[in-house]
Amino acid sequence: MTIPAAETFGATWPFAPHYFDGNGFRMHYVDEGDGDPIVCLHGEPTWGYLYRHFIPPLSATHRVIVPDHMGFGKSETPRDRAYSLKAHVDNLTKLIEAIDLRNITLVMQDWGGPIGSAFTLRHPDRVKRLFLLNTLAGYGNAEFDALTPWFQFVRKHYEAGTLGEVLGHLDVNILSIMKIIGLENLSAVNSEWLAAYGSAFPAKEDCIGAIEFPLDVLLGRIAPYVVEGFPLVDNLKSKPAMLAVGMKDRAISPAVQIADFRGIWPDRPIIKLPNAGHFSQEDAPDVLVALIQLFVQGKE
After folding, report:
1. Range of the domain at 289
2. Sheet-wide strand order for 37-41
């Protein structure tokens, strides 16, 4: 079950739904505005709703594409698919090729970073620049910190055999989980907010994507696909990039984010957001929109 196409959550998500069927499931995306494309990629356990404050201002000057990954938001949750990094990259690739996006600015948070970076490695001709926020590209030779509060939580429940049960009830515990990961702006939370993020997961079987994302890291399943991309790392290094870091991130250590970024782009700008957490789109949307607007103008 997915969120109904017409659902706006009290007009907080007023964007027309678009769907792509070329991946063998119904993949939802937003397509607003005209001009060079800005593609905004979400992560765990959210969907395009995370970018609701970004779409109106950015679409005034650009074509803004916001896809929901397989198993999230208004996209379908097929039961017979591998929810791997490679699968998510392949899904994004087919969508971008189908609507023929070029000169892309990728805005990438959480899993959006590895997904967007892997796409850029393999399709550098389509990507113009990269804006990272609370994420890793994964090619800066930084040692991943598995002891953050989020991954301690994941490991504890995985070892106890309860991870599927905990992340299988995101319809009711979405706020608690996002606070563990790093949500600071609790003033944004209201009934529409809770419905928007929680209704993507009405039953345990709809939570496959959210369960598999952290396991991909915890169990090291992403490693072979990441390693496969190392010979192509110059395709990342050649792109203009910027990193914005919510310094209260509880999922990915800010120090690791900065080290990973510096390992790829030693001279590119890093912006520290002292009062933002992992979901910096919720915590500091106006600041991030302004940074992206400067970045796409080459004024960072």
Report:
1. 17-145+223-296
2. 17-20, 27-32, 63-67, 37-41, 104-109, 127-133, 241-246, 270-273
Q: What is the pLDDT of residue 63?
A: 99
Nearest CA-CA partner of 146 in 159, 133, 161: 159
For tokens 């196409």, the residue is: 5
Rounded Cα gap, residues 279 and 21, in angstroms: 29
Point out the residues that are catalytic: 110, 249, 278
pLDDT (0 to 100) of residue 1? 60
Please state whether the peptide bond connecting residue 214 to the residue before it is cis, i.e. omega within 30 degrees of 0. Answer: no
Residue 91 in any domain: the answer is yes
Number of domains in the chain: 1
Say if 166 falls within a structural domain.
no
Tell me the backbone φ, ψ of residue 133, rounded to 5 degrees.
-140, 120
124 token code pair: 């550098």
Tokens at residue 123, please?
A: 């399709």
Mean pLDDT over the full length of the chain: 97
Please write the tens of the pLDDT for every residue from 113-122. Answer: 999 999 999 9
Q: Which residues of the chain have pLDDT under 50?
A: none
Distance CA 134, CA 152 (A): 18
Per-residue tokens: 13: 């998500």
Note whether 242 and 131 are within 8 A (CB): yes
pTM: 0.97
Are 12 and 79 in contact by the 8 Å Cβ rule? The answer is: no
One-letter amino acid for residue 177 of the chain? I
Q: Could you give the CA distance from residue 215 to residue 96 in angstroms, rounded to a whole number?
A: 27
Q: Which residue has the tokens 């055999």?
A: 161
Q: Per this entry, what is the length of the chain?
A: 300
Q: What's the confidence (pLDDT) of residue 142?
A: 76
Looking up residue 77, the CATH number of its domain turns out to be 3.40.50.1820
Main-chain dihedrals φ then ψ at residue 64, nearest 5 degrees = -105, 120
